[in-house]
Amino acid sequence: MDRTRRALLTAGVAFVALAGCGAAPAVVDPSPSPTPTTTPAPGMALSDMGFQNAPVGFTLPGGISITRRVDQPNVVTALFSAEDGRAVLEHLTRHLPAMGFTIDRTGGDSLMFHNNQWDGAFTISPEISGFTLRRVQR
Fold it and tell me: How far apart, in whole angstroms, are the C-alpha atoms of residue 123 and residue 78?
């Protein structure tokens, strides 16, 4: 490569590098989800209950019985009796923030929550209770 081409190539690379420095700043999400605390929430982790696709650190109160489950990479669901649902609702209401989730809505015997990777919902009916966590891309 002759001197002229080398000089032009060097100047072009320098121009591109300097142009990148003047780029507009990246937009930052003004409301990031909370980060989990270093102390895990009390209870039993879903992974310890046999779930392979659950969010890390997501817990439920000890002593409950899961009657049905879905454990897929994009969705995790657990069903309980209505009686166990009361303990689950109290546990989630108290400990979701420590698990890195934001509670979006509560009402009656239901709540909706999310973090950077999951949307979740929980509800209790007279016969059954359950939650679903759905993986999302934000």
Answer: 11
- CA gap 101, 113 in Å, rounded: 6
In a domain, 63, yes or no: yes
Name the residue range of residue 97's domain. Answer: 44-135
Give the count of domains, the chain: 1
CA 98 to chain centre: 12
Question: What is the spatial distance between Cα 31 and Cα 38, in angstroms, rounded to a whole number?
Answer: 21
The pLDDT tens digits of the residues spanning 34-86 come to 444 334 567 999 999 999 999 999 999 999 999 999 999 999 999 999 999 99
DSSP-assigned beta bridge partners for residue 114: 102, 119
Q: How many Å apart are CA 13 and CA 15, to the nearest integer?
A: 5
- Please tell me the pTM assigned to this model: 0.70
State the sign of the Cα–Cα–Cα–Cα dihedral 114, 69, 75, 108: negative
